[in-house]
Amino acid sequence: MLTRVALVACLAAICAAKPMARSMQVHEAREDIPEGFVLSGAAPQDKVLSLRLALVQSDPAGLEKALMDVSTPSSALYGQHLTKEEVEKFVAPSPDSVAAVNAWFAENGIEAKSISPAGDWLSFSIPVSQANELLGADFSVFTHQETGQTSVRTLSYSIPSDLQGHVDLVHPTITFPNPFGRLPAMIAPPKAKPAVNLTSDAVPASCATTITPSCLQALYGIPTTPATVSTNQLGVSGFIEQFANQADLKTFLTNFRPDIPSTTTFELQTLDGGSNPQSPRQAGVEADLDIQYTVGIATEVPTFFISVGEDFNDGALEGFLDIINFLLGESSPPQVLTTSYGQNENTISRALANNLCTAYAQLGARGVSILFASGDGGVAGSQTTRCTTFLPTFPSGCPFMTSVGATTGVPETSASFSSGGFSNFFAQPSYQSTAVSSFLTALGNTNAGKFNRSGRAFPDVAAMGDNVEIVVGGEFGLVGGTSCSSPIFASVVSLLNDGLAAEGKPPLGFLNPFLYSTGAAALNDITTGSNPGCNTNGFPAGTGWDPVTGLGTPDFAKLKAAVGL
């Protein structure tokens, strides 16, 4: 039995070694393990976790209003994009939030550093044992059965009750990596290009089986004349060690754009330990595709390949966050950013999805058009048929970016793999309500109960995404996927921006309010095809907007007129 003196001394020692326990409250939780993953056991207690904490932003609603004001053609503020400093005021956390979180960290001996321009994201590293105690969590090892990939995650975590309203989220906790992501597969191009009678004499017959820049120029009226404004730039995202090869680009331009110098190239930017080695065997199918169909279509538009390395956790969207914070930190980010990666929305924390969506709104308010491929699994999202309800993709469900679906053939029809549908996280934005309502009325009760009728609908637009010819490691081949479509549509936007810049006008910025209003008539409506998945026929394409090809594919001449050129 302890004496009174010994008991007091013991309690004093405990208090000195460990901060006072706080009242904890569950902050985020998953109902179940994402499909395809299984629990493998407890995470090693000494494993160090690299964690991030997002502070509650000061005025995201104000940011959204500002974004819509500068992005809506009928607004008096249209085109009056915000400065870096103006955007940061909307998202910077309050001094009280900063102080409260810093005090919590200090109390637990944690050193954190800011990793975003506005100071709303912090990073820190602690062992699993401390993370479990700090967050009332149970970090465990989860294995994806198909790939064998392992991840350390928890199905719920808590924060002190007095930090509610100060902490937005901690990551990665309940967000899982993308289990079904894949890169486009290359197949050999046909040796002979058969003559095919097409609806337009302007489209080469070979385009029925192989898409090249000349096909896109003919289909969409994309000009071959060089851009003239050097400050108008196009950014291409690079992830998962996909490298863009300079020699492949030169071969591509020599064969498919002989009218421009074969030395035309791109600039490299890197973050998170990114690089871009030039060995032919390291050439990436996705990276080469994205670069060849930006440099090769947006003639002479300065193009940047932004290589995001893997100096972050294990692929659960840290790169998506980091590239946006990287661009937000620039005084003059590229006016267009295209990304050909994504994952199923149901693998992601709602709080993280909201935070990333707000990050896209920040760039949009500064005049940047953000385009993402919608995905390649039809209504099953990212290449899986293991679903009973439709799986929307992320970030296509975010209302502050432009989602690009795919078409195939000449004349164009919907590509069956083109992902599209309705978000379960984000509500339908007002800019698309009329177009989506018309589709839902025509759809009737088809697929009832399999999707969220009130969710943000995607894709917004489409472009050719099948039998697209590229060069990888010196070899010619064909690829398919919405990852072809996004860089093609982004190139069209960049050329429109060049024309606007030449006349002293601002860039298009966030595209959707324009696309769903004055821009809708400047798109080729795709009315045939569907996007099957989840053991259904998916959604049908039809007149007007649909969740397969959105509002349609670009008509450059009409778009040029619609933007006032």
Automatic annotation (TrEMBL):
Alphabetical list of SMART domains matching this protein: Pro-kuma_activ
Metal-binding as UniProt keyword: yes
Cofactor: Ca(2+)
Subcellular location: Secreted, Extracellular space
All copies of domain Peptidase S53, residue ranges: 210-565
GO BP terms, alphabetized: proteolysis
Enzyme type, top EC level: hydrolase
Entry's EC annotation: 3.4.14.10
GO molecular function: metal ion binding; serine-type endopeptidase activity; tripeptidyl-peptidase activity
Main location: secreted
Keyword Cell division in record: no
Cleaved signal peptide residues: 1-17
InterPro entries linked to this entry: Peptidase_S8/S53_dom_sf, S53_propep, Sedolisin_dom, Tripeptidyl-peptidase_I
Function per UniProt: Secreted tripeptidyl-peptidase which degrades proteins at acidic pHs and is involved in virulence.
UniProt-recorded name of the protein: tripeptidyl-peptidase II
Organism per entry: Trametes cubensis
Lineage: Eukaryota, Fungi, Dikarya, Basidiomycota, Agaricomycotina
